[in-house]
Amino acid sequence: MATKGLTVATEEQFYVPETLLKKRKDQEKIAAEKCKAAERAETYVKKYRATESQELRLRRQAKASGNFYVPSKPNLHLLFESKVSTKFYQNHAKSFSFCVLSKPIMMYLLD
């Protein structure tokens, strides 16, 4: 068997299907989003630990001085944008059933 004249194909000569390229691109995008989510989670953990240690410090400080410490609780407000049907009747019970809640907007307020 003669192997004269045979060459090995380079990466540039390979044909890669477009669907495979799209899949790779999507997977890279998902991996980047996961990395960003992990970084955000780490910042939230740091913030949570800092607030917990501050609460503990304030509680101990109040106990040492003979006082009471009342921790502040955050309020969570959940707002909805409402869409009302064009057929709006005067009967409130009937008209309220035509309201459709959409686009929830969450606000996190600290006191």
From TrEMBL:
- Residue span, Large ribosomal subunit protein uL30 N-terminal eukaryotes domain: 38-71
Q: Superkingdom of this entry's organism? A: Eukaryota
What is this protein's record name?
A: Large ribosomal subunit protein uL30 N-terminal eukaryotes domain-containing protein
Name the species this protein comes from: Diversispora epigaea
User: Where is the organism placed in the taxonomic lineage, from the top?
Assistant: Eukaryota, Fungi, Fungi incertae sedis, Mucoromycota, Glomeromycotina
